[in-house]
């Protein structure tokens, strides 16, 4: 789905990832679930492009519902996968701490897990080789993505700022639809390693310029990053 010039979303409000289309090629942010491979192919065809036009995939963090088709893209098309060094092991192995689920409602929870199963989430493919990145890096990829460290949801969670798309991709630093309760609006994301640190990290994006704040779960949010921290904390 096209959101704006250069900016496309794959998936839906349950699980989403993003495509940035530029004259220099395509950059992806996150890879959703394995079954989103078909969504990616459909979006590429609509643009008259193929996977060979993708120059890189940037992960906001290494959880299984964000690395979905990453290994397939890397192994079959040679696309490099970038992830913060602190999440490199999680991306390669799936190793992560156990966290409390928190509040949930039956319908939304079943909807989340049902959608995940339909998109082949029960058979994740971890990423054999990654390129490690750090806070402050500007990647040599279409759109020149800027990496902003956002530890909390995971140690290596990042936001990805792409000025050409007027967009800030925040992964699970926040959500606009809680997958376990169905509650809409900006709020802390579930399955977070360190909730207090995740809230503190929201201040790191306050000075950035963007019209879109784009989470991995929930509706795209038209707002200024300066307003994000207060809105999420008030939730």
UniProtKB/TrEMBL annotation:
**The organism of origin for this protein:** Actinomadura decatromicini
Keywords, sorted A to Z: Hydrolase
Domain of life of the source: Bacteria
- For the keyword Hydrolase, the answer is yes
Q: Name one GO molecular function term.
A: hydrolase activity
Give any Pfam family that matches: Lactamase_B
Q: Which InterPro entries match?
A: Metallo-B-lactamas, NDM-1-like, RibonucZ/Hydroxyglut_hydro
Cite the Metallo-beta-lactamase domain residue spans from the record: 14-217
UniProt protein name: MBL fold metallo-hydrolase
């Amino acid at each position: 789905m096209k959101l704006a010039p250069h900016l496309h979303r794959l998936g839906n409000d349950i699980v989403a990832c993003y495509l940035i289309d530029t004259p220099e090629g395509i950059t992806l942010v996150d890879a959703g679930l394995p079954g989103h491979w078909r969504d990616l192919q459909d979006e590429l065809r609509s643009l008259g492009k193929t996977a060979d036009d993708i120059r890189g995939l940037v992960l906001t963090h290494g959880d299984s519902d964000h690395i979905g088709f990453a290994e397939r893209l890397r192994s079959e098309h040679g696309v490099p996968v970038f992830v913060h060094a602190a999440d490199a092991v999680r991306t390669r192995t799936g190793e992560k701490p156990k966290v409390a689920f928190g509040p949930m409602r039956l319908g939304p929870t079943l909807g989340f897990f049902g959608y995940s199963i339909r998109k082949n989430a029960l058979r994740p493919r971890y990423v054999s080789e990654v390129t490690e990145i750090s806070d402050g890096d500007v990647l040599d990829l279409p759109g020149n993505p800027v990496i902003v460290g956002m530890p909390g949801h995971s140690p290596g969670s990042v936001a990805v700022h792409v000025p050409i798309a007027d967009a800030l991709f925040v992964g699970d630093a926040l959500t606009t639809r809680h997958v376990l309760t169905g509650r809409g609006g900006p709020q802390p994301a579930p399955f977070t390693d360190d909730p207090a640190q995740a809230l503190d990290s929201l201040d790191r994006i306050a000075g950035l310029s963007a019209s879109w704040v784009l989470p991995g779960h929930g509706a795209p949010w038209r707002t200024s990053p300066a307003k994000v921290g207060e809105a999420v904390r008030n939730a």
